[in-house]
Amino acid sequence: FSITKSIASPTLCFDALLTTTVDKNVQIESLKSLQIKQIRYLDCVLEMGYSSWFVDLICMLVIFSNSSSVSVSPQKVEVALYYETLCPYCSNFMVNYLPEIFNNSLIDIIDLKLIPYGNAKVAPDNTIICQHGQYECLLNTVEACVLHVWPDLKKQYSFIYCVESLVHVHKYIEWESCFAKTGFDSKPIEDCYKSGLGKQLDLQYAKVTNDLQPPHKYVPWVTVNGQPLYDDYENFMTYVCKAYKGDSVPKACKDLPPPIVSDVKDNQIKQVCLAEETISSSKTEAMHIRPSGTSWRRQMMAISA
Known about the structure:
Elements lengths: L2 H6 L2 H8 L11 H18 L4 H17 L8 E7 L4 H9 L3 H4 L6 E7 L4 E2 L5 E2 L4 H16 L3 H16 L8 H6 L4 H9 L1 H14 L7 E2 L1 E4 L2 E2 L7 H8 L7 H4 L18 E2 L6 H6 L9 H9 L1
Parallel strand pairs: 1-2
Antiparallel strand pairs: 1-6, 3-4, 5-8, 6-7
Helix pairs in contact: 2-3, 3-4, 5-8, 7-10, 7-11
Keywords: Glycoprotein, Secreted, Signal
Family: Belongs to the GILT family.
Organism: Aquilegia coerulea
């Protein structure tokens, strides 16, 4: 075939498509209808005996036309919360501020990461020393196991919210009641704790926290797309909305109240637990390595002894 004939003659196939009718009783989605027409056109070209290179060219044009019409979802905004379970300012943030993203659906544009380690320290023998004592270490590990064992974010947060609500009202020793309150099985979490996996998760979170640039100065330490919000963390939703690159602005962003302007001066106490705050010697002496196979109930008894 000559090139002129190969290019001109397939216009007959376009004419055939234009005269093709579809049963009015059959409703076909626009995209599906387009695909059907494309297939009919290629069948027509093949029946006319045109060379494979021409069919390949048509296929490439079809693929390009389809791909160009597919919209790409905008990337979610990453929000990371570095915290420790018994810091009162962390529990306040997790009970009174962070849950709002689940209520106003802002979570749909957020990739939320929780890092339960905070201002703890890892000793040379891999003992973890927590700022607020052994009970904080226990709850840090429990929440690390929750984040690992249960992949569903809403399930994770419903349990962690329950625990932090008890911390907020100084009843954290009742944290096990959250299994009954949420209806979640405690066994996979206890297995994680007893097996030593929880300790390994703690060490992983320690590395992630210690690798922060710039280094964290206190908790709660909130970052949006890797950028720390410092003591303006309570206004994190405003930063999320500014960072979101989607064409359609979420309703939650439009409904946000004006940012809270902090009047805290440098010489006033900030609502944070400082990283450089020293741990009392009595707490440090009470720390010991928790061997694998130790349940949290035994650990709680050891703490109380």
